[in-house]
TrEMBL record:
InterPro entries: Isocitrate_DH_NAD, IsoPropMal-DH-like_dom
Subcellular localization(s) per the UniProt record: Mitochondrion
Protein name per the record: Isopropylmalate dehydrogenase-like domain-containing protein
Keyword Transit peptide: yes
Gene Ontology molecular function terms on file: isocitrate dehydrogenase (NAD+) activity; metal ion binding
Organism: Zizania palustris (Northern wild rice)
Domain of life (superkingdom): Eukaryota
Isopropylmalate dehydrogenase-like domain sequence ranges: 49-372
One protein family per Pfam: Iso_dh
Region of interest called Disordered, as start-end residue ranges on this chain: 13-45
Amino acid sequence: MARRSAPLLRRLVSSPAPVPATSASLPGHGGARRTVTYMPRPGDGNPRAVTLIPGDGIGTLVTGAVQQVMEVIHAPVYFETYEVRGDMPTVPPAVIESIRRNKVCLKGGLATPVGGGVSSLNMQLRKELDLYASLVNCSNFPGLPTRHQDVDIVVIRENTEGEYSGLEHEVVPGVVESLKVITKFCSERIAKYAFEYAYLNNRKKVTAVHKANIMKLADGLFLESCREVASKYPGIQYNEIIVDNCCMQLVAKPEQFDVMVTPNLYGNLVANTAAGIAGGTGVMPGGNVGQDHAVFEQGASAGNVGNENILEQKKANPVALLLSSAMMLRHLQFPSFADRLETAVKRVIAEGKYRTKDLGGNSTTQEVTDAIIANLD
């Protein structure tokens, strides 16, 4: 059953109107100059319901951090919380219904059994809601030392087919057949999403990742679709790279990449590699989006979701999910709240005083969260 954050909703509804600008806050009067980020439509400030899935293991720690920060910045969102575990046979219908109703979900990691057992609930969510595009933003953070600088890569991955189609069967004992399905429809729409993203975000280049030298029909169809879409965006540079060479180039010269568009499996590998190069999976935000719904979560692998030591010590890194929640706020057209949150996170990373173990520190989740709250404007 969902748990609504009712006190937060009541507070948002009853909050006093913003104080009008005084002469001290206007340009030329000694105050800070504010710019207009966008002109809201009437009603844009109404509180929005967001489905929240804390998930397994450390998920409760990092989603708890997000809830604390959202309350401090008075973000116009409230959460409908559902308990979902990775070992459940299916995603409960009430959760799917909530996401369909709210259009937006924030989730912690869900553990997926390896080998036998239940199927991945993450995949069930993506297919049920047709979340066909996965986006992971991998970039350097000032103050966080990495081997490579000037890394700013966006990996856009097709999320519903390919090797993740789930079409497997045993032909005869000892022989298993797993089908990789690539369709023109899904390849075209992920290519369109990648180029549209590049166009709207002033990105200069889109790179298609493939293995068409071996899988000539399947990956060949993916490339054909990318080329057709690329021809409609002459202002954006387009190139192609074989996936194995791509991995080598990522660890050697990652700064050469901008937006990368990939089939399903390659995108998983490329996004995790890029995240590791740019600072680690604990600081990389991401989300999954379809025509009508969006689910925001840690961008790269949540492989530490079941790490009992991190959970017991309460030292999970909340940064990735906090930045993913900033992406969510922009998606909901609350850009100023997203800016405040991102700025505070980057200040804490740059200062370097409060960091979890994966970033070379020894801070707890709560200590990092408190530092971020203290740095909010």
